[in-house]
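DATA SHEET
Item: assembly model
Revision: 1
Owner: S.N.
Input lines:
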Amino acid sequence: MKYTVFAAATAALCAFATTSTAEPQAEVLHWWTSGGEAKSVAVLQQEFKDAGGTWTDMPVAGGGGDAAMTALRARVLSGNAPAAVQLKGPAIQEWYEEGVLSDISSVAEENGWADVLPAAIAEHMKCEGHWCAAPVNVHRVDWIWANKKILEDNGIAMPTTWDEFNAAAEKLKAAGITPLAHGGQSWQDATVFETVVLGLGGPEFFHKALVELDPEALGSDTMKAVFDQMRLLRGDVDANFSGRDWNLATAMVMNGEAAFQIMGDWAKGEFLAAGKVPGEDFLCASTPGDGYLYNVDSFAMFEVEGDDKVEGQKLLAKLIVGPSFQKVFNLNKGSIPVRTDVSLDDFDMCAHTSAEEMASSSANGSLLPSYAHGMALRGAQSGAITDVVTAHFNSDMSSEDAVKMLVDAVAAVQ
Amino acid sequence: MTDLSATQGAARPWGKIALRWGLYVLLGLFALYYLVPLFVMVTTSLKSLDEIRSGSLIALPRDVTFDAWAKAWSGACTGIQCEGLRPYFFNSIAMAIPAVMISTVIGAMNGYVVAQWKFRGANIIFSLLLFGCFIPFQVVLLPMAKMLGVLGMAGTIPGLIMVHVIYGIGFTTLFFRNYYVTIPVELVKAAKIDGAGFFRIFWSIFLPLSLPIIVVSVIWQFTQIWNDFLFGVSFSQAGTQPVTVALNNIVNSTTGVKEYNVDMAAAIIAALPTLLVYVVAGKYFIRGLTAGSVKG
Amino acid sequence: MTLWLERHVPKLVLAPSFAAILLFVYGFIAWTGWISLTKSRLMPKYDIEGVQQYTRLFDAPRWDVAMNNLYIFGALFIVIAMVLGLLLAILLDQKIRTEGVLRTIYLYPMALSMIVTGTAWKWILNPGLGLEKVVQGWGFENFKFDWLVNPDYAIYTIVIAAVWQSSGFVMALFLAGLRSVDSEIIKAAQVDGIPTTRIYTAIIIPSMAPIFLSAFIVLSHLAIKSFDLVIAMTNGGPGYATDLPATYMYAMAFSRGDLGQAASSAMIMMLVVFTIVVPYLYSELRTRND
């Protein structure tokens, strides 16, 4: 009985498929399933539909994409890969090495992607010289958010160096306010860590240590200073930070329980959803130091069979980088468009800051990939670093030991 | 029949009453421990998001609203569709019911053989089946995906049913075997002398005795299969995703706004079929339903 | 022919399960063993490279923590859930009028997805939000319960939630067992004036030895596979203080693209299970066999 139902359903599906052979179609695996994110993807689906395509949605949320990656492996192994998959950073090239990605250079060249994308970001979308993925947005990771009223009441300005931050923290603690709202989850620890590396070491050091994995940089005194600063920050969080979700930390800043939070620009979405206004209720600024850490979401295109699917894939790639989707999507999501030629008139002041600093960083070479969000390193490498960072932050390990462990851990996964 | 009070006799009615009261108090205290998380979930699901955000996570709701429940059922986004859990229920039902039935029947037959019709090597086979219970499911994902691809069942509900049956028979066999070994061997011997065969003995002697263990097996299998996420997410595709995948999509937002009230309501809704099974199946726990036939 | 069939029916009944298990369990274990000797990253590769995945595994401090946690968590979880389950089953078997309701209350945690109940537990156990704050609010200012955020104690909070989730099922197993005990024997013992506690310890509980085996297997299966629970409650934290082998393996295989490492951890995990379960199975099956 169950089987006949299924057979009927398959037959119906097949019939449907034959009638629409000429039309482009695409199955899309992504993990944007919650309110604002889902609506943003729905915009893309609508554009795809308007262009005559059939979109099959395959959403799998969880663990920042871990669950989706599990599903993806199973799908690829069973010879049934989706057309487009939300992937980012070096993972794109890793999948390319498995020989399962397709080439979308024709779309990229037709639409002049090379002219509108920042060079550093375009590089992530290429596999051995040809285009294999389409970028969606740019999240900035090195943001520091603050409760404006608390800063004013205590006479504190947005810190521009880590020393200033430490001084502000002391002042706040004396006033009985938690200086830093933080959630003790390993990826959040890693997020704070990389902003400190960037702030204390500078863009060049960041690149050497967390992109090239240069053992000398990893074992340097600068790295020791970074861990010292992490130890100080550990004293700036409240006692119950362990395991807290990032959005609850954001709520602490909103409710005046804490002054600062270091988090990517998705935190802005939480503020806005609670009806807070940037510049009036809360402040946004880059974390102390120069540089810009980006976290670019993108869709990698997998090898599919059949003209309709290949067509669908190309159409999808074109729409993703198209100006209209770039604008609508990023307005919804809190990030900024990856294209440099989209008008930012409707965006808020934080987005403007982000776009301006992306342009200037791109020009002076300090536009850097976020290690904590899987843009800089392979999973095994970034994971090994995160293990050390979170172990140090959640224990009384000395900075010397942490540096030593870091060098060893990275050497083990080379 | 193992009534504690029975042995106390009528001589000490006060002691008996005190004992009964103590018993109920103890059971009630345990019930509290089990209910606290549910209390948190239900109260959260009845709050508005503003109330949650303002900081009172564990408190009674100031204003009760059922919006979150309506949203979880038919409005929450699980991807680009915002139709809540509803569309995914059918997939889960189509998967769980056959899988539970098939694995329970196979388990009952296997358990019957291993407990009462031993042949050389039967115990080894049983041990091998048992050890199969311990294989981490994360390990089987990739080879299984390949296998399903080869069989042409990738992304289908029959494929999911097959996977759940295979990794369920270890447990169902275990339950039935360990229940059936407590039934005296003489019973089977006597029936054989009367000329009854393998299936006849099962049908007329063992099956009527099996209600409590069938209940256990169904509870276990239904819970495991209904709540399974790992197989569901790996071996389904658009259109066959079970309700746990949808729940996961509602709950797990990476960089979006978290709606705890909808999460909690969705979790309770997704659990309703399992709860129904517990209530309905639980009735058949009553002892002595057919106890007479053991001695018959 | 029919006679041959008659004689071999038991074997034929068992054959399909046996074949399926051979392929889908033991075949896959062999496959995992193979992968553990390779340098597979994102996807399986089949060129054998040697045992370096194992040396890497044993050098990883995080794996030590995971294994230690498995022993602590496994032992506590199995013992507590077993004792609690048996106790609840015995209490419920005293002709309790509200048995149906109580049974469902004890069982329901199994029905809820841990992805969400983990969040509820996280709030309850968080010192700033839950139990500690509530009890302090009642006037007990010195009450402290901060296990969840203390790296040395966080693993015990996982035990609390895991027992909460699974002990109800153990209760159901024992309840089914209690209800298969021959009531004539108990009646006879009661007539002889044997005290109730003796009836339980000397007659009823020993006769349920096979049920204990079921409970043990189910609980140890849950213990080594505890995964959702840890992910939802602590995600392995603080630091990686509550990491378990299952979460380690999953992280390696699916978020870090280090399949060879994941396979080697899976093999060690199964080896540990093997050394614990096999002796128990052996003694259990031998005594039942004579």
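QC remark: Chain A touches chain B through 56 residues (CB under 8 Å).
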